[in-house]
Design brief:
Distance between the termini: 82 Å
Strand order of the largest sheet: 1-2-3-4-14
Structural class: mainly beta
Helix content: under 10%
Radius of gyration: 29 Å
Shape: elongated
Number of helices: 2
Low-confidence stretches: 278-287
Length: 287
C-alpha cells in the first residue's frame, strides 16, 4: 500500500500525529495507534479503512448465542456521509447507529421478511436488507442490534442479524447472507481527511505551517473543518510535497521544425534543407 504525505510512518515523514500510520508485525497498516486497519489513502482527501460488522445470533429456541456491538471513535477525520451507507441484514432485525463526536445523532434501519422466497438479491428495500444514509460531520459510530422475536420464525434460514457502515457499492445483498453474511467480520468504509481546522484564508497567514506547495492551490473542505490542496491546472502529483506537482503536458514542434519545443530548451527552428550546404535562392527573370 502506498502511503502519501501528509501521512507517514515516522515523525519526519508525516505532517503531525493525526497523519501517523503504524505498520505492525501483522503486515497491516493502522490509523495512528488504533486498531483501525487502513486499506488505501488518496491525496484527494479520502482514507479507506476497515469497519467492524455487528452481529446478533440465536439458537433454534430463540436464545442468544453470541453477538457484538462495535464502535469507532475518531479524533480528527469524519466518516464520509457521501461515500458510505448504514446497512442492516436480517429477517427479524432492527439496528441503531448513533454517535456524539463531531455531531450527536441517532438513526436506524429495519429489515423484516417471513420467508426466503420473498427476498430479492441486490435489493435493500427493507425485505431482508435495509440501507440508509448517515449524517455529515460524524466522527464516531456505535452500532446496536436487536430482534422482535429472536429469529424463532425464520431461524432455519436466518439465525443472525447483521449491521455495519460500508463504503457505498462495496456490499451487494444476497439471500445467502442471511445465514452468516458470508463470514464477513469487517467491511470497507471511507473517511474524509483534511488539513487542520482553519479555512484557506486563515491558513495562508502562517507561511510555515501552510501545507499547499508549489504549483498547487488551496480549497476549503466541504466535508468537515480544515482545508485541502490540489495541483494547479496542467500539473499532477502530490500538492503537499515540495515540487510534488509536476507538469503533465509535453511540448513538441510543428511539422517542418525541429527542437524540444521548450521555452527554456532548444525551442523550435526550421528543419534544414537536405542535399545542399547552401541556401537555395529562387530568381525570377522577366522583361
Amino acid at each position: 500500500m502506498s502511503i502519501p504525505y501528509p501521512f507517514g510512518t515516522t515523525p519526519e515523514c508525516y505532517l503531525n500525529e493525526e497523519f501517523f500510520i503504524s505498520c505492525k508485525s501483522t503486515g497491516h497498516a493502522f490509523l495512528t495507534g488504533s486498531s483501525i486497519a487502513v486499506l488505501s489513502i488518496s491525496v484527494s482527501g479520502e482514507l479507506r479503512v476497515l469497519s467492524w460488522v455487528a452481529r446478533d445470533c440465536y439458537n433454534e429456541s430463540g436464545r442468544g448465542v453470541g453477538g457484538n456491538d462495535p464502535w469507532m471513535r475518531l479524533s480528527k477525520f469524519p466518516i464520509s456521509y457521501t461515500r458510505n451507507k448504514f446497512m442492516t441484514v436480517g429477517c427479524d432485525t432492527y439496528a441503531f447507529l448513533e454517535g456524539s463526536l463531531g455531531k450527536r445523532y441517532k438513526t436506524g434501519c429495519l429489515s423484516l421478511c417471513e420467508s426466503i422466497d420473498g427476498v430479492t438479491d441486490g435489493s435493500s428495500s427493507g425485505i431482508g436488507c435495509c440501507q440508509t444514509t448517515i449524517p455529515a460531520n460524524v466522527r464516531s459510530i456505535n452500532i446496536s442490534l436487536s430482534s422482535y422475536d429472536n429469529y424463532v420464525g425464520v431461524w432455519d434460514f436466518n439465525p443472525c442479524g447483521f449491521a455495519f457502515v460500508a463504503e457505498d457499492g462495496t456490499y451487494n445483498f444476497s439471500s445467502t447472507d442471511l445465514q452468516d453474511l458470508g463470514n464477513r467480520t469487517e467491511v470497507p468504509m471511507v473517511l474524509d481527511w483534511s488539513i487542520g481546522d482553519e479555512d484557506c484564508e486563515k491558513a495562508k497567514e502562517n507561511v510555515t505551517s501552510y501545507a499547499c506547495k508549489e504549483n498547487s492551490y488551496c480549497y476549503n473542505s466541504d466535508k468537515g473543518p480544515g482545508y485541502r490542496c490540489n495541483c494547479s491546472d496542467g500539473y499532477e502529483g502530490n500538492p503537499y510535497l515540495s515540487h510534488g506537482c509536476e507538469g503533465r503536458f509535453s511540448c513538441s514542434c510543428p511539422a517542418g521544425y525541429v527542437g524540444d519545443g521548450e521555452t527554456n530548451g532548444t525551442g523550435c527552428s526550421p528543419t534544414p534543407s537536405s542535399g545542399s550546404k547552401f541556401p537555395l535562392v529562387n530568381v525570377a527573370l522577366g522583361s
